[in-house]
Amino acid sequence: MQSSPGGGVVRKRSPVSRWTLLVCSFILAAALGQMNFTGDQVLRILAKNEKQLSLLRDLEGLKPQKVDFWRGPARPSLPVDMRVPFSELKDIKAYLESHGLAYNIMIKDIQVLLDEEREAMAKSRRLERSTSSFSYSSYHTLEETLGFAPSLLNCPSEKLLSFQIYTWIDNFVTEHSDIVSKLQIGHSFENRSILVLKFSTGGSRRPAIWIDSGIHSREWITHATGIWIARKIVSEYGKDRIVTDVLNAMDVFLEIVSNPDGFAYTHSMNRLWRKNKSSRPGTFCIGVDLNRNWKSGFGGNGSNNNPCSETYHGPSPQSEPEVAAVVDFIMSHGNVKALISIHSYSQMLMYPYGHSLEPVSNQEELYHLAKDAVQALYEVHGIEYIYGSISTTLYVASGITVDWAYDSGIKYSFSFELRDTGRYGFLLPATQIIPTAQETWMAIRTIMEHTLHHPY
Ligand SMILES: [Zn+2]
Fold first, then answer.
1. Fewest beta carbons within 10 Å, which of 172, 260, 281, 399?
2. Count of CB atoms within 10 A of residue 54's CB?
3. What separation in Å is there between the alpha carbon of 346 and the centre of ligand 1?
4. pTM for the full predicted model
5. Cα-based distances in Å from 334 to 209, 247, 337
6. Parallel, antiparallel, or unpaired: how do β-strands 9-10 and 2-3 relate?
């Protein structure tokens, strides 16, 4: 066993050629029946007014399960991005043109980006094997998703084992056991462990900060950012004054993979999957939008009661085990003071409410804190974020995490939409992981500092 500088204890492995890995990764994708998006495009529409926005909303009903909104219709000042399958392009473009809706093509062929992404992953795995260290600038799978397929196809199965997120979590906790521990707070619909990292320097039931990422499984940049931030917290303790002060008084909980089933599915079958993987009698559609399944404003505007919709809220509040686990954990902890929920994309930092236009009681304080956090983020790489309440900045959305947190007494509740603004959308290249994590960290650190200095 050898210890890697970045945080994993991994076994040294014999070299396997680049081509073997690359070819295997493509063969396995095909063998598993991974969805192919050749010719699918992402169109950006700039609606001029409410009427044009509602024409776009109508598309979900007119073309059920055909149009996939990456940025849904919100307000005329915000663009709408939608993925259109190759087979529907002609129809949809004709619809847009007939209603005078101007559009441009943001992504010309989604499969090209997916192939590049897969190739980058295969390349990085090869490097990880040869250096025996986890790469924080790459995307990773959750677990061994390929089952028996590698041995069947004579591909090197061990190439995938050491550099998966759940293995990384175990190695990371082992290496930093003085400050980090792993909690299992429940099981997903498909019975995967729901894991939380706890950063603590002692005490019991200290005031706490909760951070989650990956509730929407296709938002890969959020998991990668969560992993980077875990290491950052550990490496800054004792060095950075704010991190040290925070961890001497508070605990930090970090749920990196909040939707493990969905995330595994984005690797094995459908890279663009958003919901969880729950199924119920009476419908053939799979999955609930885990960011519509919370109690606050459940079932209201900006959520959908059609199980086939991407924003299906589920049969009842907290019906989904992935949501119920977090609710149970935070409620039984009883001392969480800040909650940060990380999504992508759009470059926004927002606070409650999502389900209502009504300002929350400390809205002034949240506004100024968001402003400071966004400024700290900007100073890292010059990336601009917009900020404000969810309902006035983005759109009305009901049953969301941060509204529930706020209504449960967590007055510092924030939600991020990370990079970018649509050039790559959910398919943000891995080369942007580190800069995204670095700037996001500075915003999170700002929120942590404020929470520490404003006890309640
Ligand atoms: Zn999201």
1. 281
2. 11
3. 10
4. 0.92
5. 12, 18, 9
6. antiparallel
Q: β-pairing, 41-45 with 103-107?
A: antiparallel
Element (H, E) at 86: none
CA 315 to centroid of ligand 1, rounded, Å: 20
What is the pLDDT averaged over residues 119-130? 90
Catalytic residue among 60, 417, 439, 449, which? 417
Q: Residue 16 in contact with residue 120, Cβ under 8 Å? A: no
Residues with CB under 5 A from ligand 1 (ion): 216, 343
Q: Closest by alpha carbon to 444, among 238, 236, 301, 203? A: 236
Provide the pLDDT for residue 422: 96
pLDDT band at 98 (very low <50, low <70, confident <90, very high): very high
- CB–CB of 255/212 below 8 Å? yes
Q: How far apart are alpha carbons 416 and 431 in whole angstroms?
A: 20
Task: Enumerate domains of the chain plus CATH numbers.
Answer: 41-108 (3.30.70.340), 167-453 (3.40.630.10)
Condensed to tens digits (0 to 9), the pLDDT of residues 142-184 reads 986 554 444 545 555 544 556 899 999 999 999 999 999 999 9
Strands (E), 293-398: 336-344, 348-351, 386-389
State both tokens at 81.
């991005």
Centre of ligand 1 to C-alpha 289, Å, is 9
Residue 10 pLDDT greater than 90, yes or no: no
Could you write out the three-class secondary structure of 383-435?
CCCEEEEHHHHCCCCCCCHHHHHHHCCCCEEEEEEECCCCCCHHHCCHHHHHH
Mean pLDDT of the chain: 91
Question: Is 439 a known active-site residue?
Answer: no
Percent of the chain with pLDDT over 70: 89
Q: Let me know: does 27 contact 118? Beta carbons within 8 Å.
A: no
